[in-house]
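Encode chain A's predicted structure.
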Amino acid sequence: MDVLKQQIRAKLGRHSKSVASEEKFTPSAVLIPIFYKECEPHLLLTLRTETVASHKGQISFPGGTRENGDHDLLATALRETFEEVGIRPEDVEVLGELDDLLAVTNFVVTPFVGVFPYPYDFRVSYDEIAELIEIPLSFFVDPRNRRTEERLYRGRNATVYFYDYGKYTVWGVTARILKGFVDLCIPSKPS
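Encoded structure for chain A:
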């Protein structure tokens, strides 16, 4: 894990972050939570309930909208991660942040990358989260596991990414975050 953490931290430290600012878009942040399970790095994703206000039934990273009490967007990502899955902010080693992304649902999403110890005593908010999903990082590194579709968005063709993992389909902004993370930080199979 130390080699992977150093690799990710170094890549993100050298990266010149792209900042998106759209007046009508709501600032939000997510955490890409990495942990080691059976000697292999995994990512923790969530399946959102059908009763949440946005992104019903979709797979996402823990995160949400910035609130007035949040010092910055990192505070948003850590607060939302704690509220949704119970990972305490002090248990997350933040490695850096990725480019902002505009979601079709009018959010500006700032992704942060962090590692946490595993096993972990998750405290899931079942009002928001239907299920926790653990997927090996190597799955997202293998380009054969990614497919694309062209869709019309605001009068232009846009590439939409999809990752099919068993019964789960990761797509939309979460898939774009994953592709950006892997392309920038994991140029080959993680060690």
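Residues 2-185 form a domain with the Nucleoside Triphosphate Pyrophosphohydrolase fold (CATH 3.90.79.10).
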